[in-house]
Recover the amino acids of this structure.
């Protein structure tokens, strides 16, 4: 399999597959493709895993595209300004990614739901449910804004607005912390909780918070009068 990521802040991904090679993506994720693919749509992994994917922003059904001849090409495009990142999974290292970040992967990659401990689940906001990436093969993530990589040392902590977490290695500890100070909570603009990531391990942060971005846009939309 060969791939090319193109575009600037509204990027796309073109994959060139040999005969018999496959990739899977959420239903409706394909933008265009050559006519030498076989498409198979199903609830990948069973109903419960499908429902878990829905909670993390993906569709219940996943579509698998299998090349029938060598050189078949398929293109997927991003829905938000940002970057497309490629990860090579080796069967050992796993990654935890933000909701809706999955773009596509080889069939040997497992996409599942990541639920952190109860406190994080109740108060982590967007971090309540995330996506776990495991298995072997190539996986491509659709991330928002510009991406910064932080290599956390053992015991080193970083506090992040949950919407700015792109993905991190699964060995990184993930928790939430209450914002201290009454005026900070009311007027600080960061909400009541912040996500805390603790090393060792790598963390990728995104400059664009999709929820905040959507809220800003909503303020410019016309409101229907009563």
């Amino acid at each position: 399999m060969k791939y090319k990521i193109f575009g600037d802040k509204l990027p796309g991904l073109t994959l060139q597959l040999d005969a018999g090679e496959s990739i899977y993506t959420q239903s409706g994720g394909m933008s265009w493709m050559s006519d030498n693919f076989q498409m198979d749509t199903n609830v990948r992994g069973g109903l419960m895993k499908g429902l878990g994917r829905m909670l993390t922003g993906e569709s219940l059904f996943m579509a698998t595209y299998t090349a029938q001849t060598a050189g078949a090409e398929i293109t997927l495009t991003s829905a938000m300004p940002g970057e497309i990142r490629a990860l090579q999974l080796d069967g050992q290292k796993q990654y935890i990614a933000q909701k809706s970040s999955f773009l596509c992967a080889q069939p040997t990659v497992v996409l599942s739901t990541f639920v952190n401990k109860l406190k994080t689940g109740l108060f982590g906001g967007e971090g309540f449910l995330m996506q776990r990436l495991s298995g072997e093969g190539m996986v491509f993530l659709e991330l928002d804004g510009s991406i910064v990589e932080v290599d956390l040392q053992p015991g080193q902590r970083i506090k992040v607005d949950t919407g700015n977490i792109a993905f991190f290695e699964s060995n990184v500890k993930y928790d939430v912390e209450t914002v201290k100070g009454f005026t900070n909570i009311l007027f600080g603009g960061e909400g009541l909780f912040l996500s805390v990531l603790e090393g060792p391990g790598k963390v990728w942060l995104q400059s664009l918070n999709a929820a905040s971005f959507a809220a800003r846009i909503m303020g410019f939309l016309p409101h229907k009068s009563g």
